[in-house]
Amino acid sequence: MFSPDPASGTITRVDVELVPDDVWRCLGPAGGAREQLADDIESAIMEASSLAEPASVKRELAVSTIGRGVVEFDGGLSVNGPMLPHLMEGAQGAVFLVVTAGSEIGHRVSELFADDKPLEAIVLDAAGSAIAMNVQSRTVSEVADERKGEGYQVGPCLVPGNEYWDLEGQRTVFGALPAGQIGVRLLDSLQMDPQKSQSALVPFGEELRILDDPTTSPCSSCKALRCPMRLEPYKANEASWDTGIHS
Ligand code: SF4
Q1: Claim to verify: residue 113 and residue 225 sit in the same structural domain
Q2: What does the alpha-carbon distance between residue 121 and residue 127 come to, in Å, rounded to a whole number?
């Protein structure tokens, strides 16, 4: 099931079709500007779609041990963070992934700013972000469908640079994957180049505890009220579960 070659990864070129709502989600609340900007959004979608080179690379690694604040994988890689052992409790493996919309949208956005066209630049930038998010959600869905088809439970998508997993996690993701094969590199700042890229891991296992489906995760009976990964509101009348996490 697991790839023995640390340099290997599955590369996929991805078809993406954006709708205006995808771009609005990246631009923020529209207020009264929604109708005024409708043509700009359509133009940005067309330009971003023609410039984008959407692609993903993914690779699965087997979990070797889950300890205090650390999850270790076969081959010596590990992820660190106080919540990760809980979020990956029962995981037999994880699929690491990097996706990108390519570099051309970012270059065009810079040109538009240089040409003093900030509105066009901002809307095109949002369309580029929407493409990267779209590629990520499609890739995560494919990973989840594949693993569920093999009989595994699948956990929520975990992203470096969050309360539960700090940005140092980027080093593990890029150590697990040949991201350069889709043109993505990790900068010293731990940001990705091209900027319109995303990274993540998706845990899976037959006995995984925290699942991507909120209705089958234990969050509704958990008292960690400020947990950043809470999938469902706490229901006080259900039997409570003390995870040991009291964020
Ligand atoms: S709310 Fe509780 S059960 Fe849900 S992820 Fe957070 S700590 Fe875990």
Answers
A1: no
A2: 10
pTM, two decimals, is 0.88
Which of 164, 210, 220, 240 for a ligand 1 pocket mutation test, highest count of atoms within 8 Å of Cβ?
Answer: 210
Q: Is 184 in the pocket of ligand 1 (CB under 6 A)?
A: no
Looking at the domain assignment, is residue 191 inside a domain? yes
**How far is CA 166 from each of CA 81, 160, 170, 177, rounded to the nearest angstrom?**
7, 5, 8, 18
Query: Which residue range(s) make up the domain with 138?
Result: 10-209
Please count the structural domains in the chain: 2
| Ligand 1 neighbour 243 (Cβ under 6 A) | yes
> Does the beta carbon of 90 lie inside 6 Å of ligand 1?
no
231 domain residue, yes or no: yes
Q: Could you read off the pLDDT of 48-105 as tens digits, one per residue?
A: 999 999 999 999 999 999 999 999 999 899 999 989 999 999 999 999 999 999 999 9
Cβ neighbours of residue 202 under 8 Å, at least 6 residues apart? 94, 95, 97, 140, 143, 144, 147, 154, 155, 156, 157, 158
Question: 241 C-alpha vs ligand 1 centroid, how far in Å?
Answer: 9
Q: In terms of domains, do 113 and 217 share one? A: no
- 196 CA distance to ligand 1 centroid (A)? 30
